[in-house]
Design a protein that fits this description.
The chain has helices at residues 42-48, 66-69, 72-81, 96-106, 108-118, 181-186, 204-207, 213-223, 227-237, 255-263; strands at residues 3-9, 24-29, 32-38, 56-60, 88-92, 127-131, 136-141, 144-151, 159-166, 169-173, 192-198, 241-248, 269-272, 277-278. The chain is 30% helix and 30% strand. It is α/β, with parallel strands linked by helices and 279 residues long.
Length: 279
Amino acid sequence: MNAKVVLLGTAGGPAPKRTRSAPANAVVVDDTLFIVDCGNGVARQAALAGLDLRSLRAIFLTHHHSDHNVDAGTLLQLAWTAGLDRKVRIVGPPPLAEMMHAFRRYADVDIRTREEDEGRPPFDALYDVQEIDRGGCVFQDGGVTVTAAVVQHPPLRPSFALRFDVPGRAIVFSGDTAPCDALVDLARGADVLVHEVMHEGAIGEILARLSNAHRLREHLQASHTRLEDVGAVAQRAGVRTLVLNHFVPSEGVSDDVWRAGAARGFPGEIIVGSDLLVL
């Protein structure tokens, strides 16, 4: 069983960026595709990565900030237009079922038209929704097991980190989180930890342009992991490779700075993520 990870989008935050796409990741196990988070443009990024949307098996949302969920329904709809004809599981925290129902109503004209005019298979039979509100095993299919842990990303509760265990490899996605024991426990001994990161000193220029700077700074400090701390998280978990992802800010900080900051707490392999990077 072969498994790879593709970082489809490595930016942090909802505003579009010039050099990084919105948060999204792919796990490919043999010929089966799993998507973790659905920032804007995820389907396009999957196409650029050469991934076959017809092989989509499940979509996982770590939480309901728009940079992580905005294209969940769109991804499914576009995969359907690309020929997807098998059921997809959509997994995430409440109110996921209500949100997918709202998307279905939004997309109704296009879906009905394509079913009737183009003979496409019934869209409503294409997916089911699984809401999760606690940690534990949330998905099993063949040799793939996905385990969730509740992490600290206030005010959105619950927010999740996810661990994919496949034969011979374990990959963990932090989701958005401040440092917390639950993530360390979930990532214990993993081969790869894909972790969000924030350069606190570099966010000042962004905040200076915003009227909500004070409130936004408070949010970032309470709910994300500083560059000074991310290496220590990986070290405590005993992971083999730390992959930096979901960069805040997403532009203006060099790879060398990101790598050096993480290395202060982690002596293992450190990879500075980029869009379409394959692990």
